[in-house]
From TrEMBL:
Species this chain originates from: Ambispora gerdemannii
GO molecular function: nucleic acid binding
InterPro entries, alphabetized: RNaseH_sf (IPR036397), Tc1-like_DDE_dom (IPR038717)
Protein name: 11330_t:CDS:1
Top-level division of the source organism's lineage: Eukaryota
All residue ranges annotated as the Tc1-like transposase DDE domain in the record: 90-172
Length: 215
């Protein structure tokens, strides 16, 4: 389902939103202090690894985080079906997202609407088909309607506002190694659980347009 086909009242009830965010151990703080007249020294720690945080939240006032997973991205060989060339990809793929969606535990058996961007990994790819898996069928089994946003419209997804929190605190909390990164992510998730995420949806609704019937 496309976002333009969902009614406004449905957005306000049983809405979830999900996306991925890239994080790195040893992120550099966005600001530093120095004495007057002294040059600022910004530490450069380098990036030892690349991680992805997949986060799913609900449109509620407290304890909005439904599920999250932090994992290190592994290099994967991808073969082009047309040219036969093999390339190395390092990042999240459809199987990663499928497994995340599979393990989501919903609080009730009601119908849920999952707002997500139009990324290829959020759909049934050839890689999933070869394994006999379907993203749409999995969503149906979990009583979830997948609602795809138009391309290149992150401003429509409330979870991007959550990632602003993640982005800020991964630069200002200890993240020099995997253990510190995991501990800091847990603290950030606790912070997000204290926020009123209904405000995030209302902010994003300003970018939606609906006709008189509510569509």
């Amino acid at each position: 389902m496309r976002a333009g086909n969902i009614k406004l009242e449905q957005l306000n009830k049983e809405l979830e939103t999900v996306d991925e965010f890239s994080v790195h151990p040893g992120e550099v703080s966005s600001f530093v202090w120095s004495r007057k007249g002294c040059p600022k020294a910004v530490p450069r720690k380098g990036r030892s690894a690349n991680y992805t945080l997949i986060l799913c939240v609900r449109n509620v006032k407290k304890k909005a985080v439904v599920s999250y997973r932090l994992f290190e991205n592994e290099k994967k060989k991808i073969k082009d079906a047309k040219t036969g060339k093999v390339s190395i990809k390092k990042g999240t793929d459809a199987i990663d997202f499928y497994n995340f969606l599979k393990n989501i535990e919903l609080p009730t058996n009601e119908q849920y609407y999952l707002l997500l961007d139009n990324s290829k990994i959020h759909k049934t790819t050839k890689e999933l088909e070869e394994l006999g898996l379907s993203m749409e069928e999995l969503a149906r089994q979990k009583n979830i309607t997948l609602v795809y946003l138009p391309r290149y419209t992150p401003e429509l997804n409330p979870i991007e506002l959550c990632f602003n929190t993640v982005r800020y605190f991964t630069k200002n909390l200890p993240t020099d190694n995997e253990g510190e990164l995991e501990e800091s992510i847990d603290k950030i998730i606790d912070m997000i659980n204290q926020k009123d995420l209904t405000k995030y949806l209302r902010h994003c609704q300003e970018f939606f347009s609906f006709d008189e019937s509510g569509n």
